[in-house]
Amino acid sequence: MKIPKLLKRVQEYVDADKLKQCKRKDCMKEVLQQLKKQQRALKGKLGKEKNEKERKRIQKALDIIYLQRKKGLKALKKLQKS
Q1: Average pLDDT, stretch 57-80?
Q2: Do 44 and 35 touch, CB atoms closer than 8 A?
Q3: For the segment 30-67, what is each residue's pLDDT rounded down to a tens digit?
Q4: Distance of alpha carbon 82 from alpha carbon 45, whole angstroms
């Protein structure tokens, strides 16, 4: 193959990677927004709940969501830098 054709192929691969990253970023943003919405709902529910067992269950779910969002935000920032 000639050099221009090879360069064109390389550019297509690079563009494909950028497109995949863009789609992945959009998907991650959507998931993070859903987690944030769920976190807010659980915080409201936690404030109203009087049963101690149920409060512990809700708090555990909140902790898990918080950690997953934190991990997701870190990954999203890493994607945006590249």
Answers
A1: 91
A2: no
A3: 999 999 999 999 999 999 999 999 999 999 999 999 99
A4: 38
pTM confidence score: 0.76
Q: Give the CA distances from residue 49 to residues 14, 45, 56, in Å, rounded to whole numbers and listed in that order.
A: 52, 6, 10
Q: How many CB atoms lie within 10 A of CB 44?
A: 10
Helix/strand/coil percentages in the chain, nearest 5: 95, 0, 5
Structure-block tokens of residue 34: 């859903």
Dist CA 36 CA 48 (whole Å):
19
Q: Determine the Cα–Cα distance for residues 35 and 22; give it in Å rounded to an integer.
A: 20
Nearest Cα neighbor of 45 from 34, 63, 59 is: 59
Other beta carbons within 10 angstroms of residue 42's beta carbon come to 18
